[in-house]
# Entry
Amino acid sequence: DTEVRSEAAMALSQYPAPRVLQALIAAMDDPQLAVNRNAQLALRALTGQDFALDRKAWAQWASDNPQPFVA
# Structure
């Protein structure tokens, strides 16, 4: 369900863990814009970065930064 996936993406913004980061980046491929947008907002909250809805840019940044989370 779109609403569940969307809310789950937002809830993940509370968990600074590598697997959460990867799950949020993967959520950028969801066919529903609401899920994509909440994944972006969660990623921005966790990292302090904003690559909009560009999954490739997020993935590249995550692989280039061993300490991706905001202190």
Q: What stands out?
A: Residues 33-47 form the longest helix (15 residues). The CA atoms of residues 3 and 30 lie 12 Å apart. Helices lie at 2-11, 18-27, 33-47, 55-64. The chain has four helices and no strands.
